[in-house]
Specification:
Elements (H helix, E strand, L loop, with lengths): L8 E8 L6 H16 L8 E8 L3 E5 L7 H9 L10 H12 L14 E8 L8 H9 L2 E8 L4 H7 L4 H4 E4 L9 H7 L8 E8 L6 H17 L7 E8 L3 E5 L7 H9 L10 H12 L11 E8 L8 H9 L3 E7 L4 H7 L4 H4 E4 L5 H14 L1
Parallel strand pairs: 1-2, 1-4, 4-5, 5-6, 7-8, 7-10, 10-11, 11-12
Antiparallel strand pairs: 2-3, 8-9
Helix pairs in contact: 1-2, 1-7, 3-4, 8-9, 8-14, 10-11
Length: 377
């Protein structure tokens, strides 16, 4: 994650230091904060970090504008003392919305290029209402992650967190294991803005996929697109569908903003025929990744192949050729996909480049792993 340039983000940690959080446990929360901060690209034009400490009252420990360096920030975090009173979580969210995320405190003007993120860590049941105030914060464009510890009330965590809840609600049994979330949070703010990338999806539209699953595949593509830094100079995305023949849906660089790109993915019509994976891989090398089709010279090339069954043609040569061209190849299989074929398509180390799941409904887990790998590529 060290390579990871985070996209410009205003992050505010909202940490519960009510009576139920023992001093030694509060120390572990601070270690967790320090480790997440360690993986961020801290700076006035990159990621700014604030910390709000709360119990029965709310204390603004670190403003978004206070520290311009990682070292200063981590030092400030180590000095935070627990308040050791009640649990007014709603009040803390209200404070974040009105004060911590205000321009006066160093938040940046709302814009699509800057993410606003609140990370709440709590181990109790709030003594006030969180549902409405969390909704207001989310409506104001703040993405909320809720981390619950020990005997926390799970239903209030879900009231606070942003959708999809799977990505935004975490639970750990005790403060002693909160550190295991470090990696997730370092990666969560990892947009792949560190480099220009040409990404082409090669999608199996054979009839075994079935129409309702084909819709899930399109959602899955857009889930990955969501995490890419799509723009003229950063990530470009192309889409190719194959079945008994190969059809380019759109070339690299045609759509340079997420909305148009995702709309185009949604419009992809299902071919519903055979499975000529070898032919599709050849198309990737001979056409998709060529300058004539919008590929940029000297830019990292990533191919993401999705299939749900055995190829009807030979894939060996085409798979080898794609890798010899230096393309970073990911192979994703669902259902009757053949693991040996996936491994043959995937780049080395194959363990990080091929994924299999029995069911279309669990593809979103693969999307998360892929996002992280593409980011760190």
């Amino acid at each position: 994650a060290g390579l990871c340039k985070t996209r410009p983000t205003d992050i505010v940690f909202i940490i519960d230091s009510s009576r139920s959080v023992r001093p030694s446990e509060f120390e572990q929360v601070k270690v967790f904060l320090a480790k997440v901060i360690e993986g961020l690209d801290v700076g006035p034009n990159a990621t700014r970090v604030g910390v709000v400490n709360y119990a029965s009252r709310v204390k603004n420990e670190v403003s978004l504008k206070t520290h311009r360096t990682k070292a200063g920030l981590i030092k400030a975090v180590t000095k935070i003392e627990p308040l050791s009173t009640g649990t007014m979580t709603g009040l803390a969210i209200q404070f974040a919305l009105n004060v911590a995320f205000s321009e006066g405190e160093g938040a940046r003007v709302k814009s699509p290029d800057i993410s606003k993120v609140a990370i709440i860590v709590t181990d109790g049941r709030p003594q006030d209402n969180v549902k409405d105030v969390a909704q207001r914060a989310r409506d104001a464009g703040i993405e909320i992650f809720a981390i619950g510890v020990g005997r926390v009330d799970m239903s209030t965590l879900k009231q606070m967190a942003s959708e999809p809840l799977d990505d935004h609600v975490d639970y750990v049994e005790s403060y002693s294991v909160i550190e295991k979330l470090t990696k997730k949070f370092q990666e969560a703010f990892c947009a792949c803005s560190n480099s220009a990338t040409d990404v082409v999806f090669l999608i199996d539209g054979s009839k075994s996929v079935r129409p309702e699953n084909f819709e899930l595949v399109k959602k899955w593509i857009n889930q990955i697109v969501d995490k890419l830094d799509v723009s003229d100079s950063k990530a470009h995305v192309g889409l190719v569908q194959y079945s008994s023949s190969v059809r380019q849906e759109f070339p690299l660089g045609r759509f340079n903003n997420k909305k148009d790109l995702k709309d185009a993915v949604k419009k992809m019509a299902y071919m519903e025929r055979g499975t000529m994976t070898g032919q599709a891989l050849r198309y990737l090398t001979d056409s998709s990744f060529t300058p004539g089709q919008g590929a940029r010279p000297g830019v990292t090339k990533v191919g993401i192949v999705f299939t749900d069954g055995r190829s009807q043609d030979y894939i060996g040569d085409a798979a080898k050729k794609a890798k010899e061209h230096g393309f970073k190849m990911y192979a994703v299989g669902v259902g009757n996909a053949v693991e040996d074929e996936l491994k043959e398509i995937a780049s080395e180390p194959t363990g990080e480049h091929y994924f299999y799941t029995a069911d279309f409904k669990t593809m979103n887990q693969i999307a998360k792993k892929l996002q992280i790998n593409i980011c760190q590529g």
